[in-house]
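HUMAN:
Just now I want nothing more than another pair of eyes on a protein record. I would be glad if you read both lines and explained how they fit together. I have put the entry right below:
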Amino acid sequence: MKGIRWMLSWPIRAYLRYSPLNKGKWFLERKVLSALLPKQGNFNYILPNGCSVELYYSESLGSRCLAYGRFEIAEIEYIQNNFRGVGLAIDVGANVGMYTLTLSNVVGDHGNVWAFEALPQNVSRLKSNIYNNNLNNVEVFPLALGDDSGSVDFLVATDGAYGSLISVQDNKETNQTIKVQVEKLDVVWGNSKKPKVDFIKIDVEGAEVGVLKGAINLLQTCKPVILIEANSNTHLNEIESVLQPIGYRWEQPKGFEKQNYIFSHKN
């Protein structure tokens, strides 16, 4: 499958998975291990709930799951431990479905998941992963969320996980843009008769503040728990400036990735 070079890389992968030290991990993962993987092909990654997600060797999500043997396991466990049987969970920036498939299992037969993804090739893979796992409680919305409605330029990255309305990170620019539809979450929620929302995950490569500004009515009414990505202290402060005035405060549970935070309402 991955060849003898990958088998011999076990000491590196062991360091990535088990060492409490972070020195050199980025270089080892992105520059060393990625060079040992096939340039083409795919494999199935099994989530803790048993769902299977098809990933590519060439993408960062695939190489990271192979290198570490897991995907944001503390965040996944947090969701599994706290949101069993809730009514509606929302995945904003669903990509190929790592969180969508987790949430589908957690909310169960009586709950629903809304999955929002703007990049067409990700939408196709997301729908395929949903279908292959026989999930019937997920609705896919092929659009971006923001603080306005209409058509906008979406910046395409060489890796499907890094496309953005704001800027492409991690040196994966392609200088290519496509037009995508953008909508306020408040509008989608209102058009669906304002159901109770219990949990929202937001990872949209720097455009998180726009998503929040377009969802103020939902947040004030439902007070869902929010799992959100903030790539810097400045970014975290911008997110807090939107959420703190409406009663939210943040925490970072043990084991979370350094960029992931939980915002929960004080009431």
